[in-house]
Request: fold
Amino acid sequence: MNSIISLSVLGVLVLFLGILKKKTWLLPLILLGLVVSLVMTILHWNMNRSLFHNMLIIDNPGVAFSAVMIFSTFLIFMFAAQYYRKVTRPLDDIYAVMIFALVGAVLMSYFGNLIMLFIGIETLSIALYVLAGSHKEAITSNEATLKYFLLGSFLSGFLLFGIALLYGSSGSFDLYAIHAYVVQHIHQGLPPMFKAGLFLLIIGLSFKIAIAPFHFWAPDVYEGTPTLLTAFMATVVKTASVFAMYRFFSITFFGIHGVWEMTIAILAGITIVIGNVTGLYQPNLKRMLAYSSISHSGYMMLAMVAFSGSTANALLFYSVSYSIATIAAFAILILVREARGNDYFGSFNGLSRNNHIEAFTLAVAMLSLTGIPPLAGFIGKYFLFAAAIEQGWLWLVIIAIAGSAISVGYYFKPIIAMYFREDQGTILQSDKTYKVHILVLTILILLLGVMPFLISGLI
Amino acid sequence: MLTLILIVLPLLVSISLFFVRNERWARNLALTTALVEFGISIAALVQYFLYCHCQLLFRFEWLANYGISLKFGMDGLSMLMTLLTTFLVSIIIFSSFTQKVARSSTFYSLIILMQAGLVGVFTAFDGMVFYIFWELTLIPAYFIAAYWGGENRIRITLKFFAYTFSGSLLMLVAIIFLYFRTPLPHSFDHIWLYANNLNPAEQVWIFLAFFIAFAIKVPVFPFHTWQPDTYVTAPYSGSMLLGGLMSKMGLFGMIRWMIPITYPVLNRTDGLFIIFPLVGIVYASLIAIRQDDLKRFVAYTSIAHLGLVAAGAMALNSQAMQGAMIQMVSHGINIVGLFIIIQYIEARTKTTSIRELGGIALKAPRLAVCFMIILLGSVALPLTNGFVGEFLILLGLFKYYWLYEADAGLTIIFSAVYMLRKYQRVMLGNTNTVTESFTDLSFKEMIPLVAILIMVLWIGIAPGMFMQLAENGVGQIIGIIR
Reply:
């Protein structure tokens, strides 16, 4: 609760600073505010209380995931100064909207009531529609926001309709009440209305997570959105939506199997295949990362399908490792776009010659996303695969494995360009602090790979 | 403890090498590390023989909830492979000194990283840790071949990576699946994985996953298509690492993991899977006879020789398996020797095409003698290292099924044919314009070759110590099968 309040206050403060035209204070204040919120979130550990008649339930998984999201936002803000270096107008609006989006994400990780879920998602989404179009002069950014807004509001309707149907059959928005209803009716079979509601809810959330076949918005929106904000979308937003789905199922279907797993398993299989195969044909890194994020949503669905005590943990580890590696990739992408004008794979040629640290970071990020030991991405994949195999989803794991093998084809494109092709472009301009920041990300990826027990036993 | 040092030391050195700017320093540091590693493995050997059958175990609960522990140790087989690794890496680094290497600190850093990975693979007694090190070796191997390689390196090395990575992923699924079939509480420890309770159908799938993963790495026919191109395009040090050590990872995996876990499948299928390497022997030998490029020639001979080893490992009797272990060591030594000689020839003549060479023996008698001895080792002449292993394998195969032995025996005939013919073309006859100004080996160039010659003759004449190590390795595995 404190973290939600502190984040909201932070957003308002940022807007005030904008009015006062204190541009230089913005980022330090934001970073400080995020650290304070992070600490407040962590202080909720083992608190286990519910607020406002179960509207918000503060439990350990929720705390862990909101901490991850706040931390990811912190990492993204570390690169904001460089990204907006040449922009002279005050950026308080963009930063404030990002923080409000984070508030929505945190709400989604604590919800105990479907209304709260909807409020969280809408807070997040409306902020994102604004962010996607925040580069007003660029036509691609306008395209991105329009596409995202139209599809997003349409799919929000699905979500809302699904919630309404669930309410209609169970008589409550409360997750525990729905759980009680499910337990009562599972033996004579759940009514069609409930199942339809469930299905629509899955569709609504799948859109936010970018699961095939509801993923078509992702590549275009990712490409058009300003890169820093794309990183935000690909990590924080995804983590929030995936965990919201997990939270819904883990509470309402606690101890009950065989109702919706097959639906999600099929979606996961399709997502992994489409994400990885289409990823092979992308001409530039940003679109490739969009498809990479789609395929990773598919992997995360494995945790959804294989429900057991350890899956929250697996999901947490996977989200962390995925987020860090993706942010690292975007951090380098920002530099390359700035120095070389675009992010086609040709623009990465010979990067290793003059930009050791940058090239090394991107290579580590790509290898981690591929899932190569001893990097964090491998451990994340291992946890998910193990959970799925334990529950007998071998066919799905084999699809996921095939997907990982295919993904070598595109994750290695930037590596090959950076290390094995001749230099053509200008040297990337990054100052010392930026280098230190990306090195921190690299070390985190390595550290989590070698010492996964740092966060693997938490929840 | 020594086992842990063998892995951690090169890891640390490899990281610090990245930051060494001075190229001279970098290569000296790399060589020193390799020699220190060799020294430590000798110390481990001494310790092993003094307190016999102690396994020098190191154990650390890494992920206790998931049953993964960092468990390293050395039995006879691990000891053999570790000695081979530390010996060959020293030789490989030393032999690379004769060439100019661009960005050498990164180059040596990757070689040392590779060494850490290899020792990890050979000493891991935990399935998941084995897998992690198995993949860890792939990264430096890929980068060495792709950065310092020759023509078409990007396409060829990506094929190599994708091929081997796919195989390893199959193995990953198999290992995780096995984990859930171990007695409660589950564990990846090798003893637990051996004591699995798979039903016969599951055994077949697990066997296939392991077999494909390891067959790609060796490579065994028909999973070899990545190999000749990769050996040719990789720089010499890379080819030596791939041919001398990485291929042994596949064979080692068969002996340590595949056979003890899924031997009933081998029993039930009655030698069906031995046919793959046996076909490979004939196939690769026939191609080798027709090869003009020396590097590609060595690549194909490697498929033939390693096919024999794979067949021996899968024959499930102690002679063949012991022979397989000895032959793994011998082949590693011989192929590195051959690559060093080709490297010297190419450095002088700028070509590896056999057609353009000839008469080198007249100009370079020292090179000719070294080449001849290593070649005889490959042909498996008595008193050279090749003979010990191949003889035992053939004996074991004969006990298994005489027709297999007859087929496998063709390797010896074939290899005599192609090896001697190539030697004749390259070394004998009259000099031509290319080889006219050929100079003999310098003292520095002789050092790695002499070390290899010593090993060729030592294993050939007095294989006692190696036999004893292999016997110990075999004993445990045969004990499980019986």
Observations:
- The mean pLDDT of chain B is 88.
- The beta strands of chain B are 58-63, 68-72.
- The longest helix of chain B spans residues 236-269.
